[in-house]
Amino acid sequence: MFDFNIPGFIVPDILLLIFPFIVIGSRLFCSAQSKVPWRIANIGFIAIFVLLNLIPIATGEGRFFITNWRVDDFGVLMREVLMVSAILGIWFAKDYFEHGADGKPQMHQIAEFIGAIAFATFGGFTVVSACDMLTLFLGLEIATIPMYALTAWNKKDQLGSEAATKYILMGSVATAFELFGFSYLYGFAGSLHFSEIQAAVATGTSPLLWVAVLFLFCGIGFKLTLFPFYTWAPDVYEGAPTPVTAVLSVTSKATAIAFLAVLVFGPLQPVIDKINPLIALLAGTTLFVGNLGALKQSRLRRFMAYSSIAQAGYIMVALLGPEATAKTAIIYYLFVYAVSNYLAFFIFGIIGHHREETFASLRGLSKQDVNLAIALAISMFSLAGIPPLAGFFGKFHLFFCGAANGHYMLVAFAVLNNVLALFYYIQLIKSAWVDEPDGHLTPLRLTKRQRGVIILLSVMVVILGFLPFLSNNVFAGFNF
Amino acid sequence: MDILLFNLIWVIPLLTVLVCIPIPASHAKLLRGLHTASASAVLLMVCYLAYRVFMLSGTPASDAASPLVLRFLTDIPWLTMFNAHYIVGADGLNILLLALTAFIVWGGVLVSYNIKGNQKVFFALIQLLATSVYGVYMSFDLVLFFVFYEMEALCMYLMIACYGSGRRDYGGKKLTLTLAFGSSMILATLFGLYFESGANSWNLIEIAKTTIPMEFQMWAFPLMFMGFAVSSSLFPFHFWSPDGHSAAPTAVSMLAAGVMMKMGAYGCLRVAMFLMPEAAKVWLPYVVALLIFNVVLGPFIALRHKDLKYITAYSSISHLGLIFLGLAAMTPVGLRGASLQMISHGFLTGLFFATIGMIYERTHTRDITEMGGIMRKMPFLGVGFVIAGFAGLGLPGFSGFIAESNIFIGAFQQESTLTRIVTILAILSITTTAVYILQTANRMLHGPLPQKYEGLTDGCFREKLVIVVLVACLLFIGVCPGPFADLLDQSIAPIFAKISAATQPVTSGIGG
Questions:
Q1: Could you tell me if A387 lies within 8 Å of chain B, comparing CB atoms?
Q2: Within a domain: residue B277?
Q3: Is B387 helix (H, G, I), strand (E, B) or coil?
Q4: Number of domains observed in the structure of chain A
Q5: CA B73/CA B89 separation, integer angstroms
Q6: Interface pTM, i.e. ipTM
Q7: Same domain membership, residue A253 and residue A339
Q8: Partner A contacted by B191 (CB < 8 A)
Q9: Chain-wide mean pLDDT for chain B?
Q10: Among A311, A438, B202, B381, who pairs with B142 as Cys (CB 3.0-4.6 Å)?
Q11: Least CB-CB distance to A400: which of B25, B147, B191?
Q12: Which residues contact A130 (CB under 8 A, 6 or more apart)?
């Protein structure tokens, strides 16, 4: 039953699984405020990222204990996206813990924090390469449960505890929905394996299948913050520590959309035409509601929550396209979204060290620190999808994908929504660029490292879009 | 060599921004010098290239099958993931618009020497704006075109909101969001063009070879045309322009009114009408009805305003209405007039906003009721303003006369009663234009000089240079329009050929 022959494609996953233990273990041998665990994690994560790029044997199919894996090119690229998110996440975490939640350094907590992020990322790895329902479910849970813990990281923070409670309750309900959907799918197909389910779906449908699909979409709707299941997001985003919010907005969104892509282009492929209206409906309503909600926010992280709800809607548009284009579009978009989003959260994190996290705290930023204001404008315009920044090309790709199958109305709706989105991103830029400085605000002090990260991310947002190396070289060699 | 120079047009402004990044903002003199040098270099290059295009006219294009005769054509695969190419090229129409842009950018840099605030960021934004405008006129790939077209929104808001005056945040937001609304309409139809044309290419020339299905054209054309018309402030999307212009700093007003508003008209002609001529024939008569506002009511609104920039903004609205009248005429003369008007109005309004900015810098008000006798203290700026006004009302000898007469003749050739009525109204409205121009000039320049203006000085050399160069351009086109008309005719011919070849299968009008 158990096969201990470890195939090559699973090596990065295993490394990632071992890593948290090394990082947490290293704490035993160094002082409380030591940076060693962080350094080990940083080197390790970057090594895994490089490994994913290097090994040509990273793809393959196989059985590992009771789980079935199939790592294809989509899986490898999604892993890279997840690793980028994890690396940026721990950079951000260092920033956060060096400063501490209440002004005192808390570097002793960082090892556990990194461990949780690594597990969540491993969960994502599992989801993108699962080829049976059980593996998929395990991955999804491994990706979600560390997030609950991370959300409640600050034990003394009431807002955080409230957020975590809300998140756990909502998340558990979502899990229940998913499991229910899985069980019906199993009942319908008589198998957990994707290829067999696909074969069963291709031969004929029954009401049982539609119930399963509906429940699956409900479950994933929670995780992907789709309308009408998005309500937890603003509270959780605001209550969680800033690095957790950033990881949550990228890693768990990436995992959830990968889950959908795996399902829609896997077992449900034969009935995709019948599911498309549902996807279109969810995409349209989600991006509209997200944009509408963001209009009136005055707190930075609530604002980012609604903005990322809207982004989830935009990503959904790509699922309507042909498989290969859709997967490329999703990966590319997630990548630029991750970079832009982390840039925004990085800046908000720095603001949050010194000031309250509201729009008012940004007043006069351009006069105090023009580079920070430029970085903020770059990230906001990128999220709003203004060329020549990366966000535009990402969105263009998504819309292109939706239009490829003739969904012009949805694409037109999404494009018009972009104007709405531009309005609120401009509100934020206005606070930073137009409003006069407020003398009561504590001045911002940036360390060299913070500056370096911000410059790196800004440059990436600027060049990732129009420099064609990413699309041409990376995607040319892959087939989905 | 020429091809390299041509591609450098949009690269040089961008490079200038990059070069200036390490220079600290306190070295304002060095920064200004660098930006002036780069703008002047581009200006010289574009003038040389325009001369080259003129000399090459008559020789066939490298690609004989291409419906457009393009010089300096460059085609490099760019974003393979959605099949976008980097395609730039020049024909008579866009090389002249590029020259116009180069002049206005050069003038804009020169008049902004005393701008308050962080000059490093301001000049960088001007150069980015220049890049985007150059890019729009150069590109023949729709993705590239759209990227440049939308890029201006990013610079516009920051420049108006941070460096403007009055209700700058409101004006900037209104302008940016309205323009973004327009470009979202364009973007929605671009996808349709790619897939419905069957060309599976973003290349304008490739799409032009196909015939796009009529059902698609019928809804896509109005969407795209209006999307472009937003930035040319066609009624009912004109409302952003007065607020935006009045809040903007001088250089931005010059660029916005001088070249950016032409991008819309250029897009209407080059993309919407060229690619979807069948639908253009159905829809453009309805556009003529909208023009009544622009052309006839615009001058009347200008008459009632006291703020110099509002007056000029409404005058721009009416002049841009004339461009659309020329386009809607769909005759070679009308199209030539429309394109001439794009260029002529660019210089004219650039001169207008430049002199207004210079006067405002000294008087700190733009309210004409508070001014008076300025001619005594600032004769040079005063004369510049009057010349701009005369060129604006179409005085023979200036470029405006040539352009407007072509438009009126072209529009009258169109055998539709509505177009003819609007044309007559438009000709009559020149009188209104004369009234508000003369009235403004009279109140502002003559009469008693208020006490507080005793210490004012006339323009410095830099400012005089801008005025002289812009006036010279207006006069040059006005006195010797031949070469310009020849250049434009060459590039309009294929567009007109496509329009006249378009049969009109739908006779039932809207909704087909």
A1: yes
A2: yes
A3: helix
A4: 2
A5: 4
A6: 0.90
A7: no
A8: yes
A9: 89
A10: B202
A11: B191
A12: A67, A68, A69, A70, A136, A138, A139, A194, A262
Residues A375 and A420 occupy one common structural domain: yes
Q: Is B80 near chain A, with CB under 8 Å?
A: yes
Q: Which amino acid is at B331?
A: T
In-domain check, residue A203? no
**Residue A247, burial from CB neighbour count under 10 angstroms (0-12, 13-18, 19+):** buried
Same domain, A314 and A255: no
Question: Is residue A217, in this structure, part of any structural domain at all?
Answer: no
In a domain, A380, yes or no: yes
* Whether B177 and A426 lie within 8 Å, measured CB to CB: yes
Continuous segment of H or E residues that includes residue A63:
strand A60-64
Same domain, A113 and A247: yes
Distance, CA of B145 to CA of B135 (rounded, Å): 7
Q: Which residues of chain B have pLDDT under 70?
A: 62-64, 504-512
Residue B506 placed within a domain: no
- Domains contained in chain B, number: 1
CB pairs under 8 A between A and B: 100
A23, A137: one domain: yes
pLDDT tens sequence across B2-28: 889 999 999 999 999 999 988 888 888
Round to whole Å and give the CA distance between A143 and A128. 11
Q: Are residues A67 and A119 in the same domain?
A: yes
Does A381 lie at the interface with B, CB-CB under 8 angstroms?
A: yes
> Left, alpha or beta for B87 (phi > 0: left; psi -120 to 50: alpha)?
beta
Instruction: Give the residue numbers spanning the domain of A415.
Output: 273-480
Residue A62, SS3?
strand
Cβ A466–B147 below 8 Å, yes or no? yes
In a domain, B231, yes or no: yes
Q: Is the pTM of this model over 0.95?
A: no
* pLDDT for the residue B338: 94
Alpha carbon distances (Å) from A148 to A144, B147, B287: 7, 41, 58
- Check if B121 contacts A (Cβ < 8 Å): yes
B contacts of A463 (beta carbons < 8 Å): none
Q: Would residue B78 count as lying in a domain?
A: yes
Alpha carbon distances (Å) from A357 to A88, A230, A241, A352, A439: 21, 22, 12, 5, 17
**Residue B421, C-beta contacts closer than 8 angstroms, at least 6 positions apart:** none
Residues of B in contact with A404 (CB under 8 A): 195
Angle at A198 between CA A193 and CA A201, to 5 degrees: 125
d(C-alpha B486, C-alpha B483), whole Å: 5
- For A417, name the nearest residue in chain B, comparing CA atoms only: B184
* Four-CA torsion A325, A331, A336, A338, nearest 10 degrees: 150
pLDDT tier at A117, thresholds 50, 70, 90: very high
* Helical ranges in B139-276 per DSSP H: 142-163, 168-196, 204-209, 214-231, 240-247, 250-255, 261-267, 274-275
Q: Are B160 and B248 in contact (CB under 8 A)?
A: yes
Segment A344-372, tens digit of pLDDT: 999 998 888 888 888 888 888 888 888 89
Nearest-angstrom CA–CA distance, A402 and A407 = 6
Using the Cβ of A420 and the Cβ atoms of chain B, whether some distance falls under 8 Å is answered with no
Instruction: For chain B, positions 101-120, list CB contacts with chain A under 8 A.
Output: 118
From CA A99, how far away is CA A93, in angstroms rounded?
10
Instruction: Please judge whether B82 and A396 are an interchain contact, meaning their C-beta atoms are less than 8 angstroms apart.
Output: yes
- Please give the span between the terminal C-alpha atoms of chain B, in angstroms, as a whole number: 50
Q: Does B507 touch chain A (CB under 8 A)?
A: no
Cβ–Cβ contact A434 with B under 8 A: yes
| Same-domain pairing of A159 and A253 | yes
- If asked whether residues A74 and A129 sit together in one domain, one would say yes
Q: How far apart are CA B474 and CA A149, in angstroms?
A: 70
Domain containing B351: what range?
2-501
Closest CA to B156 of B245, B234, B232, B239: B245
**Is the residue at A281 inside a domain?**
yes
